[in-house]
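# nightly structure sweep
# worker-07 picked up a monomer target from the shared queue
# config: single-sequence mode, recycle default, output format = structure tokens
# input follows
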Amino acid sequence: MAVLSDPFVVDNPSIMIDTQEYKCAARAASLIPSVKMADTSTFCNPGGERPAGTTWTFDVTLLLSYGATGTEKILRTIVGQKKTVVLKPADSAVSATNPSATFSIYIPPVPFMNATIGESQEFQLTATVEGAPVFAEA
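# output follows
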């Protein structure tokens, strides 16, 4: 039995959407699978189900900023477009200890303002992945 690797603490990820790096505007990022279940109920197997496919959801918590290089303007200009996303635990070369996930999403609308007195403006960008992510280790 192999000994598991030590946990990886993410402190310098790469969150690339289209050609823009978002790590300095992000607080959290996730790529989560969910399994669709198919109804296979019969008289002999009431309530039966089986896996019928996997869908993936990309979610990133971003801070809202303005101007030519602000998150609001950059994302607003690509809303509704299909874009490539590349996620890596560390902002360095892809390897066995720093794998990447590459996938496509349609960019959802972003808020213009999400303000609370004296605080940074935070918003969630959540999108369903088109197809399945491609994972790489080299």
